[in-house]
Amino acid sequence: MKFTKKIAFASASLALTLATPAALLTQNVAFAKTTTVKQATKVKVTKKTTPFYHKDGSKFTKKKPYVYGGWKSTVAYKNTSYNVVKTVTIKGAKYYYIGNDAYLKASDVKVTATKTVKSSSTSSAKKASTSSSKSSSKKTSSTSSSTSSSSSSKKTVTQIQVTKKTTPFYHKDGSKFTKKSPYVYQGWKSTVAYKGTKYKVSKTITIKGSKYYYIGNSAYLKASAVKVIASK
Predict the structure, then answer these.
(1) Rounded to whole angstroms, how far apart are CA atoms 104 and 113?
(2) Which domain of life, per UniProt (predicted)?
(3) Phi, psi for 19 (deg, rounded to 5)
(4) DSSP 139-154
């Protein structure tokens, strides 16, 4: 009987010994869940006129109208289409950013084109870990903080000015706008931008090895034909 008890005790001790590493290897791990959402890429004005808005929700005024090239206005007109850079919320209302610091209220337009993009969310679960994970997480934290500090030091171009007498408007494939199919903005049509004209920049991209600035409404200007006058 004593011998049986000893065997039972030894078996229990062995089970505890084998279970201990698994018990120690517990930490939280995040798992990403990917979903798809639709984003507006183009809108059309549905009202007779609708104001252009600033990012704070205030309207452009006659003294300080919305300016694009040689065209000035405080409002957009019915049936005019605009490419959407992004969708934002201002004071609880949805707006579409159309470039050049101008926004249109979602209630004044209808979406005519969208694109599907992936969106990921994370949930935490428990997984094994050892004491070495502490040093590992410190290294990761250090690396990510140095990466974020280096990326934060990069400036983003927000405004440019044409330096040449004239410079073409380009499509995203690097081709130029033509007389048969010129760049059209409201009632203004042109194949080129003129010297001294300022444009707000939505993003900087590379086309066929050259740098371009996207100025909204499917138009790009070549970096070599302009100078940067504002950045953030």
Answers:
(1) 16
(2) Bacteria
(3) -80, -25
(4) HHHHHHHHHHHHHHTS
Classify the C-alpha dihedral 82-83-89-93 as positive or negative. positive
Long-range contacts of 104-108 (CB under 8 A, 24+ apart): 104/43, 104/45, 104/50, 104/52, 104/53, 104/76, 105/50, 105/51, 105/53, 108/45, 108/46, 108/47, 108/50
Q: Is the whole model's pTM more than 0.70, yes or no?
A: no
Closest CA to 197 of 166, 157, 222: 166
pLDDT in tens, 146-195: 454 444 467 899 999 999 999 999 999 999 999 998 888 766 789 998 99
Query: What domains, with CATH codes, occur in the chain?
Result: 34-120 (2.30.30), 157-231 (2.30.30)
- Least confident segment among 18-22, 32-36, 69-73, 82-86: 18-22
Q: Which residues contact 118 (CB under 8 A, 6 or more apart)?
A: 34, 35, 36
CA terminus-to-terminus distance, the chain: 82
